[in-house]
Write a structure and sequence with these properties.
The protein is an alpha/beta fold. The chain has 2 domains: about 150 residues, TPP-binding domain (Rossmann fold), CATH 3.40.50; about 80 residues, SIR2/SIRT2 'Small Domain'. The strands form 2 sheets. A 6-stranded parallel β-sheet has the order 3-2-1-7-8-9, sandwiched between helices. Strand 7, helix 11 and strand 8 form a beta-alpha-beta unit. The model has no long low-confidence stretch (mean pLDDT about 90).
């Protein structure tokens, strides 16, 4: 953690200031709700089978098997409650109104919306929704699936609304995310290792547009190279920093 973070980039400073704020979040913020991260010890992507099941290859080769794996994850996610950090971001949005450009999240948990955030760009989709393969219709996963796994016939014709490994961003809000990052004065990047290049690229777009990038992560990473300030702590450390 740094010895000092300028007040204008603390939670109190953002509330009191006149800056337009955008936030990028990764799995580090969901860890505080008890969900595994994607990288590092016990991360989802440290298991080869998981990497396969989260890929577009599995969608094309074994869609039902992939569906059932995602449904097991959904049952776990369904009961997960947002952390204090999720609620802090929702409260910041409510307080500064139009100066809040939005949250660009890599997370598929849906916890930002569950906490009350309104401007959320889920660039990897949301595990709580599914897409019709023919029409592109998006629909919430049926509540009945939580208690009783559906038959294969019910799953056919649908897929999880999740951006798979190897899939493009065509059906996800990347243009809106670029706009939010390019039009802010301050960009907070919370809990992402930067292994996937997208958040690094979005931070670069913010810097090119004149924004100050603040990277909030307990570990060094690629985001440090495009950040003016690197806060060595978790999201909860950051939101408590100026208390």
């Amino acid at each position: 953690m740094p010895d000092k973070l300028p007040r204008e980039f603390t939670l109190s400073g953002l509330r009191e200031g006149r800056s337009n704020v955008t936030v990028i979040t990764g799995s580090g913020i969901d860890v505080e709700s008890g969900l595994p991260s994607f990288r590092g010890e016990k991360g989802y992507y440290e298991d080869k089978e998981t990497v396969y099941l989260a890929s577009v290859d599995a969608l094309n080769s074994e869609p039902i098997r992939q569906w059932r794996w995602y449904l097991k994850r959904f049952v776990c996610y369904h009961a997960t409650t947002p952390s204090a950090s999720h609620f802090s971001l929702a409260e910041l949005e409510a307080e500064i109104g139009e100066k809040f450009n939005g949250i660009v999240t890599q997370n598929i948990s849906g916890l930002h919306r569950k906490a009350g955030s309104q401007k959320v760009f889920e660039i990897h989709g949301c595990i709580r929704e599914m897409i019709n393969l023919k029409t592109g219709e998006r629909r919430p996963l049926p509540q009945s699936w939580i208690k009783s796994p559906p038959d294969d016939e019910e799953l056919c014709g649908w897929r999880p609304h999740v951006c798979f490994i190897g899939e493009s961003y065509d059906d996800y809000p990347l243009p809106e995310s670029v706009s939010a990052c390019s039009s802010c004065d301050i960009l907070l990047v919370i809990g992402t290792a930067g292994v996937i290049h997208t958040p690094v690229w979005l931070a670069e777009q913010a810097r090119l547009s004149g924004a100050v990038v603040v990277n909030i992560n307990p570990n060094p990473g690629e985001l440090d190279n495009v950040s003016e300030f690197s806060f060595r702590g978790t999201s909860s450390d950051y939101f408590r920093y100026d208390i």
